[in-house]
Amino acid sequence: MSGGIEAIAIKNLQVLLISKGLSAESLFSKYDIDGNGFLSYEEFSSALSSITGQTAPEAIVRAIIGALDSDGDGSLSLPEIISLVDSDTSNQQYSAGSEIVIRDHPNPLYNGLYSPQDEINGKPSFRNGDGAILYYYNAGSGGAPSWSLDDREQDGSNDWYRGGWTRVPGSGGLPTGTRRWVGVGKITIFPSREPATPISGSSDEAVTEEVTEIEIALAKSRFFPDEAISFTFTTPELPPSAWIGIVPSDISHGDEALNDMHDTSFRYLEGRTGGGFDLPNPGTGEWTLRLHDDDENGREIAYVPFSVSGIENSPSPDPVEEVTLDGVTGQFSEVLALIDPRSTSVEAVEAGRSKADAEISSLISKLPFTLQSTAGRLWDARADAYQAVVIARIPPAETLAAGLAAAGIAAAAASAISTESETPSSPPMAEESELTPVTETPQSPTETSPEESELTPVTETPQSPTETSPEVSDKESLSGVVQSFLEARLMSDQRRVVETHRGTPYALSIKISSLEKTFGIGLPDEYRGGSTIIAEVSSVDDPSFSCWSEIRLPASADLGDFRVGYESTIDASVEGWNSIRKRIIMGI
Questions:
Q1: Which one of 235, 391, 424, 530 has the minimum C-beta count within 10 Å?
Q2: Pick the CATH number of 3-85 from 1.20.1070.10, 1.10.238.10, 2.40.40.20, 3.40.50.1360
Q3: What is the pLDDT of residues 313-347, one digit of tens each?
C-alpha cells in the first residue's frame, strides 16, 4: 500500500473521530479491553468497526497502525493515539470554499463537519448536518462583533448564540484553533480540506488516490421516516452509468454487484460531475449512501453513513414520544422560567432553582444512560449562568428596603417569596428576553471580559451564623460532608458546606467508572481543559462509607494510569456538589 493511501486513510479517520467528539482518552477507556495501556491490532480493528459501522480491510488497519506506531511494537499507546485524535490545529489557515470541523463542544449538536453557506454580514457562514450554524455577527442590533453558534434559521441581524460566541480574531477571519467560547468553554475549529471518503472497503483497491476528488454531502446525518434523503455530490468525470444509491450499512463494501442487489433506490449520474438528488426514504434503520463508478462490473468508490429514526413529522395517532438529548435541552428555557427573573432575594432565586433542578432531573432520567451525564453538565452550565444573571439584577438590600417602604408592599413581597419557596405553582410568565438573558443579550467584550461577565457566578454574601442553615459538622468525616450536602436545601447552603471544608485533604480509595472532559461555569484555572474522574469512593479513615464522586484533575495531570476499572488511593479536597446526580465534587 502506498504512503499516499495511508495518509488518506489516517486523515479520514481523524476527521471521523473528531466529528464524533471522541478523544484519545475515551477511545482508550472504551476499547483497551485487557487494560494493559495499549491497543492491539484486534482492539484497534474492533474500535474502527464500532465507530464506523463497517469492517475495514486488514491491510488498511495495519497500514494505519504502522504509520502511528512510533516505537514499532505493533500496538498503539495513548501518546500515539493522541497524535491521531488531538493533533495541533491552531496554525491551520482557512481557505475559501473549504469545509470546517468543530470539536469539543459540550452539546453534540454543534460538533462535526460544517459546509460553507452564503455570506452573512459580509463573511462566510457554515452549517453542519444537524442544522447548527456558525456565522459572523456585526453588532448590528447591539452588543459586540462576534463569531456565534446557533441552531435557528436567521439572516445575522439578531445576536443569537445558543451554542456560544467568541471574539473576532485580530485578522478578522475565522476563529480557527482552540479558543474559549462564552457560555461553553474551550472548543476547537479547523479547516477540513479532505472530502468525506471511506476508510473501509472489501479490498485495497476500493481506496485510491482518485477517491480524494470525490465528495458526498448529506443534508443531515439523521432523518425522520417521512423525509426524503437529500444529498449533494462532487466527482471527477465518470461513465454515464455511474450511480449512487442507498444500501443497508451491514452490507459489505466494495462490490458493486452486491450493492446492486441490496439497494433500496438509486440514481444514475448521467455524466454529471456535481449536483444534488433526493432519494426515497428507506425506513427506520442504519444506512449508507454509496457511489459506484459503473453499473457493469463496477466498484464502490465512496460512501457516507446516515440513520433513519424517530417519529414522522406529519400527525399520526398516538405517536410514541422519543426522548432525545436535543429534546431535553430544548426545554431548558421553559424550565428556567421557574427561576423568576423578578425575584427580590437570593433565597427566592435558589428556591426556584431547586424546583428547576427537580424538573430537569426527571427529564434527564428518561434519556439513555450514556446521555444523562452530558445532559446534566449542559443543564448545570446553562442554569448556573442564568441564575448568576438574575442574582446580579437584585437591587442592594438598602435600595430594596427603601423602595418597598415607599410603595408599602413589603408584606406582599414577603408573602410572594414564601409562596414561591413552599407552594408548587405553574411557571411564572415572563418575556423571552428575561427568560434567556445568557443566550440573547451578551455584554460587549469591550466592557467586561467574558470570563467575568458570563462565566463567573455572582458571589452571595454569606448568612450570619444565627440564620437557619443545615448543620455542617465533622470536617474530617467524608460521610458528614456528604450528609451536609444532602440536607442543603438552597444553593447558598451548598456553598457554605464547600467553603467550610475546602482545602481539607481527604484520603480516598477510588474505583474509576469513567473519564470525562471537565466542564462547568467558573472553574478554577487549574481545572480548565482538564479531565474529571467519575468514581465510586470510600474514605480511607472510614472504609464502611462509600459514595459516588466527580474528581477533577488539573489540565496538566498525567492520565496514563486513569482508566475504567482502575483502583487506587488519592488525596482530594471538596470542590462542590452535583445536585442532579447527588455526587460530591472533589479536586486533586
A1: 424
A2: 1.10.238.10
A3: 444 444 445 678 878 888 888 888 888 888 778 87
